[in-house]
Here is the input.
Amino acid sequence: MALVPRVFLTADQIQKRVREMGDQISTDFPQGPIYLIAILKGAFMFLADLSRAIRTPSRVEFIGISSYGRGKTTSGQVKVTKDLDVSIEGHHVLIVEDIVDSGVTLTYLMNVLKQRRPKSLNIATLLDKPERRLRPVDVAYVGFKIPDEFVVGYGLDFAEDYRNLGDICVLHEEGQK
Ligand code: PRP
Here is the structure.
């Protein structure tokens, strides 16, 4: 059965919310630099827009994390596959994530980065699925709280497809109402 993406959040709705998040972050952190650390791959598009919406001087970094033994849900076996190229000691750090689901990825990453003694360590996520949480995560900036639907687009994939969509869509089976 073919899967069809149906728009859930339009590109305009996303852009408006990302600008609001950028304003809030700029107000909360008037002094830079802020190290914006995006988790590969899903956060690349959110990072591109959020970084332009933040007025405080910022630097962009990427980190790769993988989870093993996981179907659609994270199992808890997490490791860093691509580490940062810089030290974050004494700097403001904002982790930029596309979606928080079980919370396993961010719980792990917060522990790893805390040990590197940043001046501050916070999380900005575009999407949050609170119903799916297995580990509590303190997320400072949330774009949209969403129900437990499988979403793609704006960086989020299904088997590596759909990341390049400007809208966020729910995947439905063809013919399904
Ligand atoms: C997704 C998403 C988060 C993580 C959230 O990444 O981008 O990093 O899962 O899930 P959790 O809260 O249950 O840990 P994924 O592993 O699918 O990799 P990708 O970003 O490369 O698509």
Q: What stands out?
A: Residues 39-42, 67, 74, 97-105, 157 surround PRP (CB under 6 Å). Helices lie at 11-28, 44-53, 104-114.
